[in-house]
Design brief:
The structure is a single chain. The protein has about 300 residues and is of the alpha/beta class. The chain is about 30% helix and about 20% strand. It is built from 11 helices and 10 strands. The radius of gyration is 20 Å and the shape is globular.
């Protein structure tokens, strides 16, 4: 893996000094522009949540003030919602209904890193069904980072569902390390809420009707101490977050594949009235895959 953006003065200077035939030596020294396998600390640093806005920590585990107080004068920590998605060159977010065929080993390392840094993973019910979602597991490599950041051993999974038509025999509900959350609306059928709770899920009301209000979902999770939010889709849920204006960051993997067909884009639903601009903050590359990080301007 190599960093394409941003290029620091040190990176540029060291890369320009590299002579032909010395890639192995330079790679061992850690020049960003040289292709090499990145370690956990480097990936965690590259994808650290912004401490200024969420009070979250980087790989050193140095958290911001618990109450979010600081130069901004905020009285509480602010949630930060990032999305992690993959797309082919022709815009497909999946192949045969799943994202795995267009992914890669490096993409999965970043997938694991983003989960390792998150308090909660927010996912749509249809994605749970199609991708065969399982509960997040505790990873020894992230244990020290999460403990230093005041996090539990693994992120919670929060499933967004208006109908609550879920298979509660799945491991996501029967054997999670931390209880699975189910976000739904106040108009959800009482018997289905009872079924979800009987299965061990924690039901969170995040809407006045049958559906979930994206902005309220973010607030409800933050009220439970879950500030570092990660959504992995699917496209319809991401489209709702985009339309509500609550998406802070997009981590997008561009897969060097062409699939054609009629696969959905990474975000679905009706278009927003005025497109919101995001700025590129990081770009990594490995084996032709591009790993970008965009933040809302």
């Amino acid at each position: 893996m190599r960093r394409l953006f941003p290029v620091t003065d040190e990176t540029a200077a060291r890369a320009s000094d590299e002579a032909p035939g010395t890639a192995g030596r330079a790679g061992a020294e850690g020049v960003d522009g040289v292709d090499r396998e990145w370690g956990l600390e480097e990936l965690a640093e590259a994808y650290a949540y912004p401490s200024g806005s969420s009070g979250s920590s980087g790989p050193s585990g140095a958290s911001g003030p618990p109450d979010g107080s600081g130069p901004s004068g905020a009285s509480r920590r602010q949630p930060w919602l990032r999305a992690n998605m993959v797309s082919t060159l022709d815009g497909a977010a999946a192949h045969d209904g799943r994202s795995q065929p267009i992914s890669s080993a490096a993409d999965m390392r970043i997938f694991g890193t983003l989960r390792g840094l998150a308090d909660v993973v927010v996912v749509g019910a249809e994605t749970v069904r199609q991708e065969g979602y399982r509960p997040a597991r505790a990873r020894e490599d992230f244990a020290a980072l999460r403990e230093a950041a005041g996090q539990g051993p693994a992120p919670a999974i929060a499933v967004v569902s208006a109908s609550l038509d879920l298979d509660y025999s799945l491991p996501l509900f029967t054997s999670p390390l931390v209880p699975t959350l189910v976000l739904t609306g106040a108009g959800a059928a009482p018997d289905r809420i009872a079924t979800a709770e009987k299965a061990g899920a924690q039901v969170v009301i995040a809407g006045d009707g049958t559906g979930v209000d994206p902005a309220r979902a973010v607030r409800e999770l933050a009220d439970r101490g879950l500030y570092r939010l990660l959504t992995e889709g699917g496209p319809r849920l991401l489209g709702q977050f985009v339309a509500a204006g609550v998406l802070d960051e997009l981590c997008l993997t561009l897969s060097p594949m062409l699939t054609a067909g009629d696969a959905q884009r990474i975000a679905g639903g009706p278009p927003v009235a005025v497109p919101r601009r995001f700025e590129l903050t990081s770009l990594l590359e490995e084996a032709g895959f591009l790993f970008s990080r965009y933040r809302r301007t």
